[in-house]
Amino acid sequence: MPVTIRDVAQAAGVSPMAVSKVLHGRGRNVRVSDESAERIRSIAEKMNYRANDLARSLRTQRTNTIAIVFEEFERLGGNTGYFIELFDGVISAAFERGFSVTVCPKMVNFSRNGVIWDGRFDGLIWCKPEDSPTTVEALANSVIPVAVLHAAFPEDLPVPVMVCDNTQGMDLAVEHLTALGHRRFSFAVDPANAHTDEARDRLFGLKTALQQRGIEFDLMRIHNWGHKGEGFEADWESGKIGTALVVYGEGQAGEILNRARQYGVTIPDQLSVVGFDSTRFCETTTPRLTAVRQPVEDMARLAANLLIDRIEGKTVDHSRHIFPCTLDVRMSTSSCPEASLRP
Amino acid sequence: MPVTIRDVAQAAGVSPMAVSKVLHGRGRNVRVSDESAERIRSIAEKMNYRANDLARSLRTQRTNTIAIVFEEFERLGGNTGYFIELFDGVISAAFERGFSVTVCPKMVNFSRNGVIWDGRFDGLIWCKPEDSPTTVEALANSVIPVAVLHAAFPEDLPVPVMVCDNTQGMDLAVEHLTALGHRRFSFAVDPANAHTDEARDRLFGLKTALQQRGIEFDLMRIHNWGHKGEGFEADWESGKIGTALVVYGEGQAGEILNRARQYGVTIPDQLSVVGFDSTRFCETTTPRLTAVRQPVEDMARLAANLLIDRIEGKTVDHSRHIFPCTLDVRMSTSSCPEASLRP
DNA sequence: TTGTACGCGTTATCAA
DNA sequence: TTGATAACGCGTACAA
Fold it and tell me: Distance between CA atoms of B50 and B21, rounded to whole angstroms?
């Protein structure tokens, strides 16, 4: 049914290569006369010829398509804006450079010896890979270029890695809160993230930032609550929670805001809350959530650009790109209620 | 570099077809003994063989990938949540059925005689096509199945079409506003959308809803403002704007909220505003925007499912699916300031 | 300019 | 039953 290059060639009385040359500019040393070229073009148009990209890609080994692998996504809108920013960054870079972007469900796995490869993608962006020997080996043996977003683990990976500066981001949060008079800090994380390197980094950043300001951090104030904040009430009742609460992620932070309100705790009057990952989601919480912002879109754009550089053989980058965070101050933080009592 | 099916065949001392049969179950009347099968499997594993999907797709004419075409998108996050919901709907349906989803930049055009087709997609979802003879012809002549989202124009298209019920949606808005005491209604639309069928439908819906309630609609109150609300001040000053303003889209509505505030007009006390397309964006405006919601995600999911049904040869659907709207009441609407004055 | 082979998995046909 | 061989899908590299 579809018209092939051979159909056009036959109709024009020339070879397939002549058509390929005229229509697609292929064939280094193929010459076609102007008259033939015109005839070919006209006939191709008349026959409504479209090149089959599959056949071309099979031959050239280039698809001009990159994949995004993100194990956590089923829904983009879900409850945070993280993936949106990520996707915006990737497609803006990819489109500019003539690449399409595929989101596919099966790429979440990788073969025992490397990243899965099936010919459909020139490269892939792997978001938040888990820290395991398998991951490291998969990256090392990948047959296609890979760029990684948010691999907090420290191994030297043979790929470009974009991460944000969790320590510096936490310092911003602490600076903001101490300026508001807070001295007793809590840190909350949910089970799914409690043992990630990112959580470790953020907790470490919190401790360091406090230490640098001469403030002690009480280990009792690490709260392993559920993703929906389960456990908040008990800790609040027992007085374990400080006046400032830093939460690992924006999703959990939002849930904690709700839970606190339902329990009669007024935010920010009684408790200041800072989340991590400031996206549009933080605009939708009550009160709106003060949060540390990672430049996710920039990170994603760089990831895509480095990946495509590699695909096009321009540069090979295996470095770790560290992005500074910023702080979006919203309505969930205010002066420490105890500050006025302090001498 | 990549290992092919022939490499495995040679290493196992069998034919490529034997490998294809064992590894992929192809070849109707090919039989392979258990011992050979085991050897093939083991060798393939050892050689880290991966099938090339391009070659397979070229042969089978199936890619298990669908495309999304959306002329307006460069940024998903942009200023509204529309595309997010759309994408969530599509990927949830597609993934469930083993399809990948590609967002590509070049599909915004179509050939003179049909939807562009390059072999990479089994079908495509076309969002908000413009109403033109070319569009209709392209759909009629498409070589791959197409499903359309939001083709407000009334032609009988040879594809499944998902639309929302603009008339009923507008009725919800009017019901809400009249219950609040409003009697003088304005309608705003920006130049980019002023001449679309959707704008026509919504304006018609507004007029009808008012008429049914015995309220007159003054044609002077159709406001062709800029996308950023340019023109609002002049019309406000001249008293042309009613007490209730219905806006074609959420983006323009958000801009109008800002502009009104800057001009000293208090929303909703002095003016109630209702937008169309209620997404998370409406949660981020000041005040939060009351808006008519289209079930975009449901529409997208159905579009994907109907498309895949068609691809798989299950059913052929050419009907127009009309989805009812709902109204999300937020903070941009309140009692009519004139209502108390009325006898 | 043209012919031939190639990229790689699969279909269809044929042989033991 | 067990399998091999040839041809195909379609655009392109390279030699002639």
Answer: 14
